[in-house]
# Entry
Amino acid sequence: MGLISGLLTLPLAPVRGTVWLAERIQEQAEDELYDESAIRQGLLDLDAARQAGTLDEDEIAAAEDALIERLMWIRGLAGEESHGRIE
# Structure
């Protein structure tokens, strides 16, 4: 980027910084969404809550269903990616 274009686009620097930050936040959120270990930890936390009696069975069942659905979705995506490769 030259001096003139740098000076002309200087007012856009806060916007570029905000876009960059939003992209990093999106990457982090996607990493957490697709992380199987986070889902496993969530299931362990639900089991601990069941044993401690802090949540009722309906809440635990709903949360477990959501976590298992997410895990199956992630594994389904991984399966689609491996089927799309040429070996």
